[in-house]
Amino acid sequence: MNLKHIKAIAFDLDGTLVDSIADLAASANAMRQALGLPPLDAERIKSHVGDGVASLVHRALTDDKDGQADEALWAQGFTLFIQHYRANLTTHTRMYPGVAESLNLLRSLELPLVVITNKSHRLAAPLLAELGIDSAFSMILGGDSLPEKKPSALPLLHAAAVLNVKPQEMIMVGDSENDILCANKAGALAVAVRYGYRDAATLGADLVVDSLVDLFALLKKSADPHANVRM
Ligand SMILES: O=C(O)COP(=O)(O)O
Ligand SMILES: [Mg+2]
């Protein structure tokens, strides 16, 4: 695929734009403590992140990736988690190195930028606002914005339709299998970041980058009429 044809870029949030593990782990452990459960390791909680808050609460209560907590316990846990996390979206959460700079650079290429996350919209939007980068994005799709979330192609297809571009003209940048599957099913270019919550080398992305600055450099080069960048 030639990067010259790229007309819009979608970004995953957790593990791609921001490192949110410390705050997610603190909220999961505050929930566990309120329910009389011992704390879990942040690394353990990291392995439970990626399919949205409802699923994280099940996994954090059972400490099992496929675990389903009892319905009443889950409902209590969900409320406790959201209360704590809403108040601590950016206590420790920061952008990864190069993110703020690359968003500005990418905007200079006049490409619309969107966020497609499995986090609830009501958490994702204020998180981006607190970090001062919400205005970089023309759309923020949360895991609860549409009937299906990643790994479904729906959020990416929806973004493409709203932006009036073909999914094949979009890049999805992410850190997990959900992002790559979403991109593949939509027909978009799948780019993985090496620093995220999963091992990027195993995801089967079309391209793996060390930083979003590298992605900008590739796009800029391919926009140069004298360059011939193919991947
Ligand atoms: O909140 C999650 O579970 C993961 O969110 P992400 O899709 O931004 O990685
Ligand atoms: Mg992610």
H-E string: EEHHHHEHEHEHEHEEH
- The CATH level-2 architecture of the largest domain is identified as 3-Layer(aba) Sandwich
Describe the oligomeric state of these chains in a short phrase.
single chain
CATH homologous superfamily heading of the largest domain: HAD superfamily/HAD-like
Name the average pLDDT.
95
Q: What is the count of helical runs?
A: 9
Largest sheet: 6 strands, parallel
Spans where pLDDT lies below 50 across 5 or more residues: none
Bound molecules: 2-phosphoglycolic acid, magnesium ion
Total strand segments = 8
Distance from N terminus to C terminus (CA atoms, Å) equals 6 Å
> What is the percent of helical residues?
40-55%
Major β-sheet strand ordering: 5-4-1-6-7-8
Count of separate structural domains: 2
Overall spatial form: elongated
Radius of gyration using CA atoms only: 18 Å
CATH fold type of the largest domain:
Rossmann fold
Proportion of beta-strand residues: 5-15%
The level-1 CATH class of the largest domain: Alpha Beta
* Sheet/helix structural class: alpha/beta
